[in-house]
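At this stage, I put together one protein's amino acid sequence and its backbone structure tokens, which the following lines show:
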Amino acid sequence: MSSRRLVASVTVWQAVASACYYAVFAATPFVREAFDLSRFLVGVLVAAMTLGYTLLLFPSGAIVDAFGERPVFVVGLVALGGGALAVALAPSTPVLFVAALVLGGAYATAMPATNRAIVASVPPGERGFALGLKQVGVTAGSGAAALVVVNLAPTVGTWTDGMAALGVLAVGVGGAFALGYRGEPGDGRLRRIDLGSLRGNGPYVALTAAGVFLGAGLFTTVGYLTLSLTESVAVGAAVAGIGFALLQVAGAVGRVAAGTLADRLARRRDLRPVRATTTVLLGQMGLGVLFLGGFALSPPPVFALVLVVGVGLTVVGFTGLYYSCLAAIVAEGEVGTATAGGQTALNVGALLAPPAFGLVTDASSYGVAWALLAVVVLVGVGLVALVPRRL
């Protein structure tokens, strides 16, 4: 399989997987109403999904390194489809939270498998663009999920019909990958997870520490955007769903543009890839802090949608660079485990920040919560600045 065809196939897989996972984030207004959840419990729901995601990241990375990405692609997507169906059919709040935990655990297969597929098949000078393009699958799937679950499904039934449709789609695509995808095999040895060499890698430690704060910004924004638009900006659920889709479209543009810029910077300035990606990442997330801070000003609807696009380009659009930087500072045989570690760092932020954001909004206002979130992301930017100093 050519590298272009492989990147296209992996991007499709990522889009379907992300549609199942992020559909719950887009549907939070409906979920809150259907299960009578407080804003804090919405954050706990996001944390439950993230907990499942986090618990299985390192096992998924180890399995990918040992056996290649193909079996993980197949099993992971079928499990994601089952998780989406479980959320759609949940009869009570406890069952909903268990289904969310399962859905998150299934999504843990995504980053180690897709990143290994790219790194194993794409030349180093093109990986920034390829990883950014693959990450478009996240935003494309998320945006499509918002339109299906929030806008389309309620016109013909309920939001749960949209979730169920996405689950069926995932199972079908998983079957197609079982039949048509080969990928690169691993060495067949399932190793015990060993972070010893990574702990001694100064740039990797700094980048994963930054990931905690950057992940807090990413997942809290995704988890609360539709609620914030409906409750603080006072737009309807349909407009909020469009806003969520805009966030993801802008995130897709940001991931490709930032990755392409980093590749060009490395070639024209003769920089090491990690220095080029770090430079672009700093600028991108610095702007993201400003856009997040704009939400603290209780903007009118039109200005709020402008901020949504800005946050999408930056806070949602940074992950392609993040993974590219991770891949550049570890050995090729450690990419699966290193990716799992980096994603775990993002997820730690996602475990802690959304419930805290919900508590602040319940106790004070969305404006205060957005301002505090901007400060959290600023701390992450400071930690990213340490990466080139430790090379």
